[in-house]
Specification:
This protein is α/β, with parallel strands linked by helices and about 240 residues long. Helix content is about 15%, strand content about 30%.
Length: about 240
């Protein structure tokens, strides 16, 4: 088992991932579970994309997630602890940056300054958007293709040369909200397999999603139940 060489983009089968403590069992994948953050209101308090942002071998982690920090250090990751998260926007979106491959979609006004500077030092392609919840709104398919439910992200990535499928921002459950977000309901579990939390076939844009993933030879893997936003599936280690 080794750390992914490309952030969120596995080159083989994923063996270890970050996900909410609410994440269902996934065959063959060990989950480092993110517990509820007392500074963030439920139901997003345990969402991985609220509490953690992975950049290659470095993880930016909410200071309230001490147990998770220790677990990440044990597998060889560098950890930067980030304080100041709270329920009120934009303080709940400081780590909600969509990093995939060498790209990073973010709102520079809401993203944590340490994280942004690290991305600059590592020569990431920074794609700016007014959407503070960039990772919630982005599902990476590969290094140069995403699915999003946000028009500002669609516009920004297309201008950056990244392919994009826009889907309707509804049809995904998130308790306490009108709907959840596509980036929060899954992630890649191998280069050619996309995991969804729940039944993606019930989404109104399923045919578009299926066709888009098929274009990149990516198969759909689902868990049981309704499609739900659990705060992203973030692959960390692969075979």
């Amino acid at each position: 088992m080794k750390l992914l060489s490309k952030t969120l983009i596995p080159q083989s089968r994923v063996k270890l991932a970050l996900a909410s403590a609410e994440c269902p069992y996934i065959d063959g994948v060990e989950i480092l579970k993110v517990n509820a953050n007392p500074k963030i209101d439920s139901p997003i308090s345990s969402h991985a994309d609220v509490n953690v942002c992975v950049v290659e071998d470095t993880a930016f982690v909410s200071i309230e997630q001490a147990e998770l920090t220790n677990s990440l250090k044990k597998i060889g990751m560098q950890v930067v602890e980030v304080g100041g998260l709270s329920t009120k926007y934009p303080y709940d979106s400081r780590l909600n940056v969509a990093v995939f491959g060498k790209n990073a979609i973010l709102n520079p006004k809401t993203a944590d300054s340490q994280l942004v500077e690290h991305l600059k030092r590592k020569n990431f392609n920074l794609i700016f958007t007014p959407q503070g919840y960039s990772k919630c709104s982005t599902l990476p398919v590969n290094e140069s293709a995403i699915i999003t439910c946000d028009r500002s992200i669609e516009k920004a990535v297309l201008q950056s040369g990244i392919d994009c499928l826009y889907i309707q921002p509804n049809g995904i459950k998130l308790e306490g909200y009108d709907y959840g977000f596509i980036g929060g309901c899954g992630g890649l579990i191998s280069p050619k397999e996309m995991l969804f939390f729940g039944d993606i076939t019930k989404h109104r844009d399923y045919k578009k999603i299926e066709s888009y993933l098929s274009k990149y030879d990516v198969k759909i893997i689902t868990t049981s139940g309704s499609l739900v936003d659990l705060g992203s599936f973030l692959p960390i280690c692969e075979c």
